Predict the 3D structure of the following.
Amino acid sequence: MKKFINDDFLLNNKYSRDLYHGFVEKLPLIDFHCHLDVKEICEDARWDNIAQVWLGGDHYKWRLMRSNGADEKYCTGEAPDRDKFQKFAEAMPYMLGNPMYHWSHLELARFFGIDDKLLNGDTAGEIWDRANEVLRSGDFSARACMIKSGVEAVCTTDDPVSDLSWHKKLSEEAFPVKVLPSFRPDKAFAIDKYETYIKYLEELENASGIEIRCYDDLLCALKRRHDFFHSMGCRVSDYGMDTVWFKNAFYYEVEDTFKKAISSSELIAPDEVAAFKSALLLECAAMDSEKGWVRQMHIGALRNVNVPMYEKLGPDAGFDTMGESNCAESIASHLNSLAASCTLGKTVIYNNNPKDNDMLAAMIGAFQDSECAGKIQLGAPWWFLDSLSGMRRHYEALSSNGLFGRFVGMVTDSRSFLSYARHEYFRRALCSTIGSEMEAGRIPQDIELAGSLVRGVSYFNAKGYFNF
């Protein structure tokens, strides 16, 4: 049998092969949104076995194990690592058509040199032994994974209360990869969760040195932390939201809502919550614009829908799903408000529902300007959309409604040091798509023209846009 992961994996014609091997295969990676633990990078983490680096924290893999009937002890529980790996391997044959089947075999090939076996229940033992031998070699670590993958820069995800001590320590070392923080103030928006919100404000007070008794105090505290993050090299913010909030309200109304939120546990009306979040989002966007940061907004996820499992395991354990909201009007109003106040900076909007692809691709075209090419971006196919079909739908929407050649490319959105294989996956899918268009005669059969596009989308557009 021909090796599944081979030089021409996903490259279905001569054009796609020439594009990948001739233009993008060796380019560095810029991963401008991830959830890596900076402490693990700083300490150059190592692992005792493949299950630890393979399954630890990877809720993508846990979801598929659960779908195959695996007990929770094999996902997040106390089962032996060997048994956890076995359960994942047993699910693999049922993943055909899922990107995880491709990602997993790419990870085995690129990081462990295992490309002659397909992972399944029968081969799990041999692959376990071979992978663990690589781990014991002494050349396998967090930093080694990043360097081996050609990573140039990564942006982690950091709450405003973080002291960024691990970032500071890492910046003082001779590590060739830039590891930069991102400003993620999601918890500052959650006024509808009284107890956790009060605890968070205490943390924000301690971090900022500002006593928070009114809405203006909150803004001052966030601004002080924003300034601190900038001094630590941060040039990117990030917001996770089910939708983009927009609701007009007077300043005193937002102030009254905030005081109500911190003074008692009484329920706040949904309209009041929306108005508060809308106002705070505009204020944070203005802070980002003032400093020239790139603002990233992740929209469209419905989080923690399995409440019993959320209460048992907490967030980011695989109990989220694709959301649905009629958000076109609110997004347009939000962007328009920023444009009117001259505070609309570089913005990347990540969509998590394919029905909104064309709407967003058209929307961003209404707010571009001469600050830079592709100032407002439809971000990479994200979470439930980072599959071959999701990438192709993204290409179709953006190329039909805007300039796909200005797209800033892929992110891992991952907690795994093995996930850089997803960049290779994206680049192969990109070259496959463009190569197919060339073969069909839908774009010119000019390899230099097409090569310039795939090089830009794979690396150079992000390098220029983020300007780290």
